[in-house]
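hey so u asked for the seq, here:
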Amino acid sequence: MKVIPIGIWGGYPKANGATSSFLIEHDGFHCLVDCGSGVLASLQNYVQLEDLDAVVISHYHADHIADIGSLQYSRLINYYLGKPAPALPIYAHDKDETNFANLSYKEQTIGVAVKETDIVQIGPFEVTFCETIHPVYCLAMKFTVDGRSVTLTADTEWNDRLVEFASGTGLLISEANLYEEHLGKSPGHMAGSEAGRLAKLSGANRLLLTHLPLHGDQKEILDAAKGVYEGDAELAVVGKVYEV
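ran it, structure tokens below
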């Protein structure tokens, strides 16, 4: 299983960047996790849009869905050019009925509802979910194949349930949107030390930090995580291939 960061920023992207998003690949199957601002432009450096097999959306904040419309247009344009393709499945919760309905578009994309208790087969991946603590309903997710797993926290503040959910994961991709001085002051997000604590308690083999703030020195967030977690930890690097 290969994981490629497509974007690493929270809220909005830096110039020429993209908000937090990841491409997960195995046996030629390409699954995109979240599709916010700048993601579609970045994604095309690693896979052709028509070769995308599935999308999974954690929640409906703009920095996680802003490029869905452009993705839908890309498939419609290919259809008009005589290159039709099966409808692209976009997996997401349906607790927000309006945003979920917008995932289906002119037979080019189709929204597929998932819930926390589901075990969903997406290509080669068995995908499970865990509700996070965020101002809107949001799902963390774990991708498992051949006994190996990648867990993505999505957007969340500290959540004890994520410890068991991420237990023994090969790669923990954790949001780390806050500096330590902001810990507890911004609902729905974690600081670096909390991401490190989650990696330590869950027994994750590696920790990757994402959904980073645009201000300040992000290395401080990594240092805070390493102060708690003794394993391999780094800030996610766009385009780098992480093998699990």
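The chain has a mean pLDDT of 97. DSSP finds seven helices and 14 strands in the chain.
lmk if thats what u needed
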